[in-house]
């Protein structure tokens, strides 16, 4: 876990979902590969050829953007797949229940955090996929706001979904902290919006969050 900043007054925690509220590299890989497969079919091209074209695009993008990562949704936009299509593909093709299961440790953690903070999810997956994922993990009742790709029709990193989450929680951005496993996608922009930011290595770091926030509070 890397804590960048935590606001002095903390009212809401805005979580990324995939790779943050669960750790499952195989499922994360599946989500990427399944969309590439769909794009390959659209282009009447092979999977490997399409995957290589995407990789080359990402590499070029990073080189011209100070080595930052670009989200898959934005990569697909560059390949002619609209955000609306990305939303539909993900809704149809992703079945979190095939990979994930209830996580009692996460349930305990989020229920504890929920007593002190508003909790939100901001994900580049559609809200439907987020709801299914949170339901499988057993934490769907913990969140005040779920902001997905279909909420603002833009992919993170973009200010709109983060500001929407803060708004739905009824708090100002400066009292939020954004948490996620990818700095460029989940943390960098919220920091520029005046939010706090925490990069996690996976859900194992989220389990430790209650204690870390409590310690920070006591040391302030
Ligand atoms: Mg993630």
Structure keywords:
globular, binds magnesium ion, 11 helices, 2 domains, single chain, six-stranded mixed β-sheet, Rossmann fold, alpha/beta
Structure in words:
By secondary structure, this protein is α/β, with parallel strands linked by helices. 53% of the residues lie in helices and 11% in strands. It is built from eleven helices and six strands. It has helices at residues 25-42, 47-64, 72-78, 83-93, 104-114, 127-137, 149-152, 159-169, 183-192, 203-207, 209-219, and strands at residues 2-5, 12-15, 118-122, 145-147, 176-180, 196-199. It has a six-stranded mixed sheet with strand order 1-6-5-2-3-4, with helices on both faces. The longest helix has 18 residues, at 25-42. It is globular, with a radius of gyration of 17 Å. Bound molecules: magnesium ion (MG). Magnesium ion binds at residues 16, 18-20, 180-182.
């Amino acid at each position: 876990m890397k804590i960048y900043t935590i606001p002095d007054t903390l009212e809401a925690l805005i979580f990324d979902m995939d790779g943050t509220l669960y750790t499952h590299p195989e499922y994360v890989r599946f989500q990427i590969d399944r969309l590439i497969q769909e794009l390959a079919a659209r282009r009447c091209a092979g999977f490997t050829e399409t995957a290589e074209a995407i990789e080359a695009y990402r590499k070029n993008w990073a080189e011209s953007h100070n080595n930052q990562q670009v989200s898959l949704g934005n990569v697909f936009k560059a390949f002619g797949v609209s955000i609306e299509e990305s939303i539909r593909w993900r809704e149809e093709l992703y079945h979190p229940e095939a990979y994930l299961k209830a996580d009692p440790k996460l349930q305990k953690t989020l229920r504890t955090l929920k007593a002190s903070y508003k909790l939100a999810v901001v994900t580049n997956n559609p809200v439907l996929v987020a709801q299914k994922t949170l339901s499988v993990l057993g934490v769907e009742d913990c969140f005040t706001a779920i902001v997905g790709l279909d909420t603002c029709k833009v992919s993170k990193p973009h200010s709109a979904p983060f500001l929407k989450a803060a708004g739905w929680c009824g708090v100002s951005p400066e009292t939020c902290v954004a948490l996620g496993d990818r700095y460029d996608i989940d943390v960098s922009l919220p920091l520029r919006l005046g939010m706090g930011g925490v990069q996690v290595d996976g859900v194992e770091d989220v389990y430790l969050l209650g204690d870390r926030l409590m310690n920070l509070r006591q040391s302030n």
